[in-house]
Automatic annotation (TrEMBL):
Keyword Transcription found: yes
This protein's record includes keyword Transmembrane helix: no
Record Pfam families: HTH_1, LysR_substrate
Family: Belongs to the LysR transcriptional regulatory family.
Record function comment: Transcriptional regulator of the ttuABCDE tartrate utilization operon.
Listed SUPFAM superfamilies: Periplasmic binding protein-like II, Winged helix' DNA-binding domain
The entry's keywords: DNA-binding, Transcription, Transcription regulation
Ranges for domain HTH lysR-type: 5-63
Protein name per Swiss-Prot or TrEMBL: HTH-type transcriptional regulator TtuA
GO molecular function: DNA-binding transcription factor activity; transcription cis-regulatory region binding
Entry-linked InterPro entries: LysR_HTH_N, LysR_subst-bd, WH-like_DNA-bd_sf, WH_DNA-bd_sf
Domain of life: Bacteria
Length: 322
């Protein structure tokens, strides 16, 4: 007789493999450990092959056959999640509330435009909006607090998430025009910035805890959010990288100046729409994703951005030519 494992058996198998032990799986699934062991034994009997090596170690270790079966189990359970999501989407009408997490890296003008149109299109749908840096957005979606996330910095791949690229952005090192680095009037080196205070955002997310991005100075001031960093940089208290779209007006009006610092990574990075696989967006949330995609897919690239700034800032044009 061909094996006919149940979905429950496959879920228990996957949980044991991912949690590392039968006891850990029992806690995750809120079942007695004896039930976990019995379920795995029945699955092995049906498949007529051992899935775990139990001798010589207190922790179960996947056999070669078990590793192959694990991939099949993941695929089958993922397909089940997709089916459940489709059923939920077919049965669900317009949401009572849309919970969205938006990264500070998303251009502010795009966020304002999308939310203004959302208000007009869905006047009876409540909105819960969270903003944050780096991994915070992913944690909000993963925890279920936010239905969808819009932003960059996907710092951890997760099969439970649907991640779609919908646009791009980039960071730019800047300082106040009175800052010593802005006064040098030439391309900057690492030696120039090492002893100058760099303002750095400390992300509250556990996904990026202890990680630094583009930190070049020996002296750092750490702040909790991008808005505070923006104000301190404008006040001349240090230099730092800020989302280009966030500071366009400051650059055009001369409140900030770009720093010609090749050591600072200004590569374009993608902006994503993120949601949980088993929690598909309703009509209003799905509209919001597409609205952000429409606006962010046409964001200016670095060349367009610099050209727009140079129209208002001849000094930047002169430095770029040197």
């Amino acid at each position: 007789m061909l094996p006919n494992p149940t979905l429950d058996q496959l879920q228990v198998f996957l949980t044991v493999a991912e949690s590392g032990s039968f006891s850990a799986a029992s806690r995750v699934l809120n079942r007695a450990q004896s039930v976990i062991s019995y379920t795995i034994a029945n699955l092995e009997a049906q498949l007529e092959m051992p899935l775990f090596e139990r001798s010589g170690s207190r922790q179960p270790k996947l056999t070669d056959e078990g590793r192959v079966m694990l991939e099949d189990a993941r695929r089958i359970l993922a397909d089940l999640q997709v089916m459940r999501a489709r059923v939920k989407g077919l049965k669900t009408g317009l949401e009572a509330e849309v919970a969205v997490a938006i990264s500070v890296m998303v251009p502010v003008h795009a966020t304002v435009e999308v939310l203004r149109e959302f208000r007009d299109r869905f006047p009876y749908v409540s909105l819960r909006l969270d903003t944050g840096e780096l991994g915070t957005m992913m944690e909000l979606v993963n925890s279920g607090k936010s239905t969808i996330g819009i932003g960059g910095a996907v710092v951890k791949q997760d099969d439970a998430l649907v991640i779609e690229r919908i646009g791009h952005s980039f960071m730019m090192p800047v300082a106040a025009p009175t800052h010593p680095l802005a006064q040098l009037g030439r391309p900057l080196t690492l030696a120039d910035v090492r002893e100058e205070v760099q303002l750095v955002v400390t992300d509250a997310s556990s996904l990026t805890n202890g990680k630094d991005f583009n930190v070049l100075s020996y002296k750092t001031w750490r702040v909790s959010d991008i808005a505070t960093k923006h104000q301190l940089v404008r006040g001349g208290l240090g230099w730092g990288g800020l989302p280009a779209s966030f500071i366009m007006e400051d650059l055009q009006k001369g409140r900030l100046v770009p720093l010609p610092l090749d050591a600072y990574d200004q590569s374009e990075y993608p902006i994503y729409a993120i949601r949980k696989l088993d929690n598909p967006p309703g009509p209003a949330a799905a509209w919001m994703i597409e609205a952000f995609r429409s606006r962010l897919s046409h964001c200016p690239n670095q060349a367009d951005f610099k050209a727009a700034v140079e129209m208002f800032n001849p000094e930047e044009k002169r430095l770029a030519a040197e």
